[in-house]
Amino acid sequence: MPSVRAVLEGREKAALVRVEELRTELERVQAALVEAEEVLNHRVIGLEQYLEALAEQDASVGVEPDRPAVAGDGIGEPAVAGPRRTVARKENGVPVDVLGAEYRLIMAALGQTGDSLTARQVAVSLGWDSSVPSRVEGARGRLKRLVERGWLAENRPGRFTLPAAAA
What we know:
It comes from Streptomyces lancefieldiae. The protein contains 5 helices and 4 strands. By secondary structure, it is mainly alpha-helical. The chain has 2 domains: 4-80, no CATH class; 96-166, Winged helix-like DNA-binding domain superfamily/Winged helix DNA-binding domain (Arc Repressor Mutant, subunit A). The strands form 2 sheets. It has a two-stranded antiparallel sheet. Strands 3-4 form a two-stranded antiparallel ribbon. Strand 1 and strand 2 (79-80) form a beta hairpin. The longest helix is centred in the first third of the chain and has 58 residues, at 4-61. It is elongated and about 95 Å long.
């Protein structure tokens, strides 16, 4: 039968081994965190530069952007995305040609089907990878914007169609 001292020394060695394992793991995680923070900083800077360039391009072409899309973080100030492209309101006699290229493609896709389409189907019609959620959400945002401006109707949640077909 082992003595109490041997049992306690065994427990101490096991605890020491565990502490060393955790220290090694902590160093690995800290190094990964530093690397991930550096990648994040590069992404943030890249996004800021892209949004600045886009705003400069819009200013030089004379495009007046809509109010920026705002997504609150629930903590403090809201996070503000870049400017959205202008989408004209549909009025009698206004041709589809006033819309941007992607919006015209969406209108053409809906005109060809004669039925309602989902955001995923529209993403595919735009040539986007519909397995990427951000692409589908981008298509949904464009569809919602067209609904707000009177170009489309959302006859059922998530199903978009031309207004005449919605009636």
